[in-house]
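[SOLVED] Predicted holo structure with magnesium ion

Edit: marking solved, answer below. Original request kept for reference. I posted the sequence and ligand SMILES and asked for the 3D complex as structure tokens.
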Amino acid sequence: MTPLTRLDDAVQPSAPPAWPSTGDPVVCLRGAAARVGGRTLWRDVDLSVAAGEFVAVLGPNGVGKSTLVKTILGLQPAAAGEVRVLGGRPGRANHRIGYLPQRRGFDATLRIRGVDVVRLGLDGDRWGIPLPGSARFARRRRAAEARVAEVIDLVGATGYAHRPIGQLSGGEQQRLLIAQALVRRPALLLLDEPLDSLDLPNQGAVAALLGHVAHAEGVSVMIVAHDVNPLLAYLDGVVYLAHGAAVTGTPDEVINGPALSRLYGSPVEVLCTSDGRLVVVGAPEPPAVHADRHADRPSGARDGSR
Amino acid sequence: MTALLGPPFLQHALLAGTAIAAAAGLVGYFLVLRAQVFTGDALSHVAFTGALAALAFGLDARVGLFAATIGIAVLMGALGRRGRADDVVIGSVFAWILGMGVFFLTLYTTTRSTANGAAGVTVLFGSIFGLSGAQAGVAAAVAVAVCLGMLLIARPLLFASVDEAVAAARGVPVRLLGYGFLVLVGACTAEATQAVGALLVLGLLAAPAGTAQRLTHRPFLALALSAGLAVAEMWAGLGLSYAIPHTPPSFAILAAAALVYAAVLVAGAVRDRRGRSRQHAVT
Ligand SMILES: Nc1ncnc2c1ncn2[C@@H]1O[C@H](COP(=O)(O)OP(=O)(O)OP(=O)(O)O)[C@@H](O)[C@H]1O
Ligand SMILES: [Mg+2]
């Protein structure tokens, strides 16, 4: 594997290729629909993500973004259409997928170190217990430990990875979980709101890291987000879910007034602030592209004092 | 050689007690980790009822013990979410079960001519010094099987306990593991009831595991430590009870377990305070 740049180092955004590309798709949905509890969340969704592409899934709360991720994982059957993942039916190749579910904090009393949680991402599905034993086992164990240390360093969590995870802050836990999703060198990363509970500098750093993982290592990355701004420089494509349908395309094609107006069926404007941030105005739901959850958190109020 | 280990009843107690303690230590670690200690407590009430029901119907108490604990463990899993019994389910079931136990105790003592009047006390407080060689052998064999089962599922169960959604996506049979674990909890509770009694099972399940989790944050080390501590406390308890007259073994075992836990708690608090005052001095 190519040596990765650490999270703290600047990663130059590479020029995004046109999307969707014509490559063999890692994730492919055709006319897909999702039904949860007898309600159709979205339908007629066409989507294709090739190797090495970085795609954001955007949309207001409750529109079915997490459900889309679960559909790709095979945890939730598609109600209609065709879904293919890594060349097979969803759920068949999940050992090659790194998954970060939507935010769930660990119980404060959980007395397990961060490294152990990351390690479970590597071999937690194996039966039995890790046995200290023969030289062959020892070599494999050292390789595993080296890999775990490598990804923890990559996400910049080395300083606290040996503390009980229940005692870490939400953002620290989140970084360790990103390491857990990366540890097996997956072919596809499915991250459900990984930037949640990270401060602004760390949102930028994680976005850069994921862009690097996608473009330099050829991993397909699909990320659910509420704020597209930290990601914009690295994204190849955007899936915008709203009103039971999806618009897909490059960020420029999707995040603009006419495209979102068509999706919502009412006039929507996308404004660009002087510092390059996008703000969606006029959407029937609360402003969806720019952090609706974090609206109470002024962007300048948190400095990166970590 | 065997004379060194004392009279036969003590040897039987050591044989069964060691295996039972190891099983309780392994099962207890996951009960504490999964915040399911209450499940173990509820199952001990079930154990009481099961044993007395078997006696009331003229069967071996152990048949009732295992049938009741394992059966109810699976039932609690089915009623709870994802193979994890929740507090409301347990709370509703176990008071009712305990009432049944009292009913069976009355039935047993009033209808069976051969009734042993102390049966209720025996089930509640255990009778590890009363085991025959054959009973001790069976108890040890079952406990060893529980240990092997726990070791087999330990890693995926840890994954499922810590990170259920990711484990499920990775193909770990989260639900099935939850049931498998509950069955092992049931079997372990039935075993431990024979050693320390239905009322005191909880101590053997929770104290060594809680101690181990305070001593180390490495999960597999904590698992081994939990089993090791449980065995050591069992030996200490049996030894004390044998050496000091009028000391019931269940009391001695649980006193040892509680003492070690308390010592670790106090040591931890002292260390925390020292660490904090040192930090204070630096800043
Ligand atoms: N198990 C379930 N049973 C019934 N309804 C469900 C279930 N899971 C999700 N839903 C519903 O499906 C809808 C979409 O849920 P989903 O979690 O996919 O939304 P989302 O787009 O990820 O929202 P958010 O931005 O809040 O994470 C919601 O209205 C939710 O209430
Ligand atoms: Mg969601």
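OP edit: The domain at 7-105+187-301 of chain A is CATH 3.40.50.300 (Rossmann fold). Thanks to everyone who chimed in.
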